[in-house]
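Hi F.,

I've been meaning to write this up properly since the lab meeting, where we talked about keeping a consistent format for the predictions we share between groups. The idea is simple: the sequence comes first, exactly as it goes in, then the structure tokens exactly as they come out, then a line or two of notes. No screenshots and no reformatting. I'm using this chain as the first example so we have something concrete to point to.
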Amino acid sequence: MKVRDVAAAALELDEALSYFNDIHPELANSFFHEVVRAKKLISQFPFAWKNVDNGLKGFVIRRYAYTIVYQIRPETIWVVAYAHHKRRPASWKKRLRDIH
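Output, unedited:
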């Protein structure tokens, strides 16, 4: 199944990568590879991860304190947020209306 980001989630990912890159480029590279790996697993096993809200799942990237929040649709898995564990919990809920 295809995994796509809503626009706000893509921006969140870009901001996280920029933050990690400012600390050290290898940290950003490592985070990016963890996200790619997570999205591949989500694509292969979309129902395997915990429920985080009504109809939403979450894949925890523990090493980086981020959760990939996603919704499973018939043909696409939509990433709603790359939610940092200590920032604005559930601020992404309003993004559900952005899913096509």
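Notes:
The chain has a mean pLDDT of 89.
The chain has one domain: 2-87.

If this format works for you, I'll send the rest the same way.

G.
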